[in-house]
């Protein structure tokens, strides 16, 4: 596989959790310095995690939503031009998760806010010329269960409302020429193969996101999943992990931070135990031509992660 | 008992763990300092060790803190076990100047007071409305509407053992032309003032004159320094000026800016201020280093004047 076509997700920059020097990630200068470094690491395309939170409180230096881009660059077109000047040719995709809106016992609020901002994010993806818009159809299971202790009793109605929301987005995506893709993180109500009945209820154009670490943690072999679902894969995230969820961490309110044994769930690509070379080889053999993204989510050092990721990709047969 | 007790306004970004039991293993995973900034147990120990006995919660942290600890009461008990008490929570009274937002502003303010009571806190430092850009300039009627909301929330807070303190940011719609008008339009029985030294200096107030004028309204402080006093309208009224594009910092640790904090402490002594002083480190690249530098400055420069 030609690794030049593989994108890097901007989720390698820690936007939310405490660490020294994290404050610089909120200023425009940081990101404009970053893009050439991504290119220097061999990446020509990026994925953007859409985050409405930067729209609130004036922290628009983080380029993760439409408001921020309009504030700093006036338009998506001017942002893309700035990226191009710095060696980033394309925004491959935009991701969205609704965790921010699971903050009370009001599901009308959750679905209303999630639907509104997912719609914004999808439009932003179209403006950026992205191939796909990848949405997490549920918040963290454990966070939802905190505010809705009867979550299992509500599962059917929750699924119905999620399906309705996704159908609306699917229509909008089709009209915008963007592929709607469903994520199935290990912490989701629709984790692992539970995503399948959900996607079955949606139009054919809706595709699956293959996240190799999330599938592994959920107990699903990524290679088997890819082989079984090869006709409806919308994008592939090459994520790595060493984490074994022996204590149902996926059901906790903060599932990326296992409460009883602190660990870095997502490892820098190539440093965990997921057989990523075999997965890339399988994608090649299957003739998969869709987007592939490396994600160093939760990295302790984004610049080391960039080089680690490139070092890993350099080892793959070209 | 000293006249002044010290707290931190929490500007830690999301702290994902309550406590890390496998600290050494976690460190060895990638041999970085992540383990030192990832759990409340450690963060609160830093505070306690450096003599900051109180913490002011940020409302944007609630969505993480509450599921992590289960309830405000659990968080407060956890902090208390480590020598830190929750003194209150910040609150943004969004759109309180807008008459058609009155019910929502009151509901939201009361809800915040209720949350503070659950944490066992006593202070609700309140930004009276949102950014100037997009809302300003406010009419006289809008300033009065804002005062009406503050009085209403303040009365509810007082009834529940909480003091609300107006807290102005340098970029808010309540700004230099109407800052004092708002204070004087509120009821001193119910509405107090949190003096954020850097914010009002950037706004264009002289902090010593301001404290002299309003010392009887001051409920608490956000103490921080600045090297950027008296910013022009073009900066204060611009879109999203708090986080600068080039990384310029508005706020510095006490002693690293240009404010006359010794002069302020002499006035605290003159007016016999008693209460909590929160330190704020917004914009700091390293909260722990800022906390330690602040403690040094307090002990060597400010507490000898008035303690």
UniProtKB/TrEMBL annotation, chain A:
Residues 38-302 form the Xylose isomerase-like TIM barrel domain. InterPro entries: IolE/XylAMocC-like, Xyl_isomerase-like_sf, Xyl_isomerase-like_TIM-brl. It is an enzyme of class 4 (lyase). GO terms for molecular function: myo-inosose-2 dehydratase activity. SUPFAM superfamilies: Xylose isomerase-like (SSF51658). Its EC number is 4.2.1.44. Gene3D superfamilies: Divalent-metal-dependent TIM barrel enzymes. It holds the Pfam family AP_endonuc_2. Keywords: Lyase. PANTHER family: HYDROXYPYRUVATE ISOMERASE, INOSOSE DEHYDRATASE. This is Inosose dehydratase. It comes from Sphingomonas prati. The lineage of its organism: Bacteria, Pseudomonadati, Pseudomonadota, Alphaproteobacteria, Sphingomonadales.
TrEMBL record, chain B:
It comes from Sphingomonas prati. SUPFAM superfamilies: Xylose isomerase-like. Residues 48-283 form the Xylose isomerase-like TIM barrel domain. This is Inosose dehydratase. The keyword 4Fe-4S does not apply. Keywords: Lyase. Pfam families: AP_endonuc_2. PANTHER family: HYDROXYPYRUVATE ISOMERASE, INOSOSE DEHYDRATASE. One of its GO terms (molecular function) is myo-inosose-2 dehydratase activity. InterPro entries: IolE/XylAMocC-like (IPR050312), Xyl_isomerase-like_sf (IPR036237), Xyl_isomerase-like_TIM-brl (IPR013022). Its EC number is 4.2.1.44. It comes from the Bacteria. The keyword Lyase applies.
